């Protein structure tokens, strides 16, 4: 699972740090530090943290990894963890 | 197949054709490029989408590189950006764009291939400004920090326990690197040309607080001093740095944090208004050509863009901020596939954060425009405060040290051009906050390193004027 926190939006409510302490921690009074990659065993914890964030600052993606390019048949080094051939509107 | 030029071509159905099966090419596959691609799909674009990026990795997040990655709590290759949705794109990663033919609407790739487009988004960002002496920059032990690979290399050297780290430049990047070094227990010297760290971005009053913060954490901070030379040993390893005050430092690791250079070289001679200061665009993210005319099929977003902002006197802002890249990408993508009347201006209020020495520093607005500063809440001595910047009698920016909850209030003050000094009777003011003081920015005519916000009027004097044939 990949995640990113919009730290402009983050207000340091620390809900995430309570709900998923292995992934989110507060450093000092209000600086949030997090692991941008969490393994699957943390899925539930992290999902709870995402839901609990009062400012909706956490973006988590659950899209599959290690799949071929978004669009099949196009050469030149697609992302190793890119997404499957997905038409617009999918996902 | 391809949309007509001009106004999105609404009326004759060409915009509908573009949205259905047009070709959109995005150059620069990082934060702005990815968020734009997602927004295009969200907006119903079903045509072909190509992302061209010279880095081999899929889009990843950079802010952790100077923080968690240097500390060793996150691996450099583990900051891949989450996706908001699948985008069904052709990815051309590890491939640089080397040229643009505006008339023929083609992007040239390294290797000679050309990629045609109906709409183009330029999101090529910036790169670290290298140490100006190439032979010294090549010494083993001299680093810059912009990419995941830079961060991985630097992390390895920090973990190996250097005798002393020299950080050249006390802007946000340099300060965060110094903070990580201290947290790792490494001796670190910061050399800053200005009178204090962060002075270019936040002014001298706040810079003084940053200086005390660094010293309290054991940084050997040298201000109003420049590094004049880096010296290697016979094997080409860095061993010493020479400073403008005549002293020398024994160091085996130096990080050059002197700001950034915009990635616009690939646009040289294209006829676009692109140069060392970025690619100029209108508030709707449409690029200007060298004549100062706005294009209608070439858009710009992120660190490489310069955009006029109505709230800040229509000055062209170059914002090297994460939040700007996201917001501008969304506006650019929306406008790329929308008819004229539905287009939106990029009216985002500049905002950024930086975490250093355990303090959460955040800002909104454009502090560098500030003439005066009022400490409206908290106190400088406690390093927990809200500083409000005033410009011509209105609130123009705010900065917080560990007081993020105040920032939203001042963002609204900025949006509504609220009077400065702000009246806020419900809150007790500390002695710091009784009257405004000069914000104390360095004289802009003197060189400083890498403020994160730079203001400039639009003048293409730094560019060669090249007339491209009229397009039809
Ligand atoms: C170490 C670090 C820490 C940061 N910390 C913060 C922070 O705490 N807060 C904050 O607000 N911001 C921070 N930032 C800034 C933030 O990361 C940037 O604003 C953001 O990355 C901008 O995104 P972008 O997509 O516009 O540009 P970039 O991320 O620079 O991406 C541009 C991409 O285009 C590629 N490219 C360039 N030229 C070409 C070409 N000719 N052809 C193909 N591809 C090309 C580049 O290689 C790159 O992959 C930090 C940046 C760094 C480096």
Automatic annotation (TrEMBL), chain A:
Keywords, sorted A to Z: Electron transport, Iron, Iron-sulfur, Metal-binding, Transport
InterPro entries: 3Fe4S_ferredoxin
Molecular function via GO: electron transfer activity; iron ion binding; iron-sulfur cluster binding
Protein name stated in the entry: Ferredoxin
Pfam families: Fer4_15
Source taxonomy: Bacteria, Bacillati, Actinomycetota, Actinomycetes, Kitasatosporales
Disordered, as annotated region: 69-91
Low complexity bias spans: 81-91
Protein task: Ferredoxins are iron-sulfur proteins that transfer electrons in a wide variety of metabolic reactions.
Domain of life: Bacteria
């Amino acid at each position: 699972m990949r995640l990113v926190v919009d730290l402009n939006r983050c207000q340091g409510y620390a809900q995430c740090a309570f709900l998923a302490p292995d992934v989110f921690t507060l450093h000092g009074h209000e600086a949030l530090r997090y692991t941008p990659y969490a393994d699957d065993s943390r899925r539930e914890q992290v999902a709870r943290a995402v839901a609990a964030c009062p400012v909706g600052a956490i973006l988590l993606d659950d899209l599959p990894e290690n799949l071929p390019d978004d669009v099949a048949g196009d050469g030149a080094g697609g992302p190793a963890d890119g997404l499957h051939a997905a038409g617009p509107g999918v996902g | 197949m391809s949309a007509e030029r001009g106004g999105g071509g609404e009326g004759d159905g060409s915009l509908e054709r573009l949205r259905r099966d047009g070709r959109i090419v995005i150059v620069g596959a990082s934060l702005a490029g990815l968020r734009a691609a997602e927004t295009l799909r969200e907006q119903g674009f079903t045509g072909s989408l190509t992302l061209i990026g010279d880095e081999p990795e899929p889009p990843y997040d950079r802010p952790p590189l100077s923080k968690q990655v240097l500390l060793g709590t996150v691996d450099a290759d583990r900051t891949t950006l989450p996706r908001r949705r699948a985008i069904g794109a052709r990815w051309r990663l590890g491939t640089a764009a080397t040229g643009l033919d505006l008339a023929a609407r083609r992007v040239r790739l390294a290797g000679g291939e050309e990629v045609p487009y109906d709409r183009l988004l330029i999101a090529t960002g910036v790169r670290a400004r290298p140490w100006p002496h190439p032979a010294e920059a090549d010494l083993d032990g001299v680093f810059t920090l912009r990419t995941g690979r830079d961060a991985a290399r630097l992390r390895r050297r920090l973990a190996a326990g250097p005798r002393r780290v020299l950080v050249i430049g006390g802007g946000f990047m340099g300060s965060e690197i110094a903070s990580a070094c201290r947290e790792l227990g490494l001796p670190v010297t910061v050399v800053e040309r200005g009178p204090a760290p962060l002075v270019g971005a936040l002014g001298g009053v706040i810079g003084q607080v940053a200086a005390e913060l660094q010293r309290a954490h054991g940084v050997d901070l040298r201000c109003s001093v420049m590094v004049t030379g880096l010296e290697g040993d016979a094997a080409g390893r860095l061993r010493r740095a020479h400073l403008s005050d005549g002293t020398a430092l024994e160091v085996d690791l130096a990080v050059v944090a002197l700001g950034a250079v915009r990635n616009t070289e690939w646009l040289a001679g294209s006829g676009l208004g692109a140069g060392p200061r970025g690619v100029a665009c209108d508030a709707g993210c449409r690029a200007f050509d060298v004549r100062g005319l706005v294009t209608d099929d070439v858009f710009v977003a992120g660190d490489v863009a310069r955009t006029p902002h109505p709230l800040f006197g229509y000055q062209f802002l170059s914002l090297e901020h994460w939040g700007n890249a996201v917001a501008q990408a969304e506006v650019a993508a929306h406008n790329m596939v929308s008819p004229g009347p539905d287009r939106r201006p990029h009216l985002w209020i500049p905002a950024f954060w930086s975490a250093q020495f355990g303090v959460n520093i955040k800002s909104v607005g454009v502090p560098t425009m500030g003439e005066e500063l009022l400490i409206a809440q908290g106190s400088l001595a406690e390093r927990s405060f809200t500083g409000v910047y005033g410009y011509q009698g209105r609130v123009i920016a705010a900065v917080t040290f560990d007081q993020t909850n105040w920032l939203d209030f001042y963002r609204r003050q900025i949006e509504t051009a609220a009077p400065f000094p702000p009246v806020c009777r419900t809150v007790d003011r500390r002695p710091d906050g009784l009257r405004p003081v000069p914000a104390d920015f360095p004289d802009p005519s003197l060189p400083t390193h890498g403020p994160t916000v730079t203001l400039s009027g639009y003048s293409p004097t730094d560019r060669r004027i090249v007339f491209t044939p009229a397009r039809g």
